[in-house]
Amino acid sequence: MIEGIHGLNPRLLADATDHEGLFRVFIHPATSLPLDHLSRVSPHDVRLLRRIVRDRFQRSITAADNIARWPSVRRGDLTHIYPYIEYADAVFDSALVYEPSVLKVYAERYLLEVPQRHPSYVTAERLRQLIDRFITIYPDHVPHTSIGREFVGGSSFDY
Q1: Roughly how many angstroms between the first and final C-alpha of the chain, as a whole number?
Q2: For the purposes of burial, counting CB atoms within 10 Å of the CB of 3, is it exposed (0-12), middle (13-18) or buried (19 or more)?
Q3: Burial of 98 by CB count in 10 Å (0-12 exposed, 13-18 middle, 19+ buried)?
Q4: CA atoms of 152 and 53, how far apart (whole Å)
């Protein structure tokens, strides 16, 4: 099993002897979540919120730093992921309708830590206002087998 942003790149497994035995899965939040008749939560905002929460837990990266890195992450998507989606045998939409409510528990305080003078502040404030529209759902109410647990911790699949 190979996991990561380069997993769909055919050059990664060019030397594999059994190409028939390969099964590639691409997992990402793809669905825009409706807020009302005019507004939606974009999958890119969900991904950024996921990163902010996960990276603070697992890598001690601040929300400000994560937001500052986001343009580079998006360029990496265009270079290292999207050109190879055609090689995926299955595409799984990991968007969860309740996810912004769960991410809010952590993301809200992390976004509030971004200083007003920091270049990431405008995005942090926009994301904070976005998640403010959701009712809080505490992670205790999220199944331990949910893909959302990858970002808030407590997954049954942690090793």
Answers
A1: 15
A2: exposed
A3: middle
A4: 7
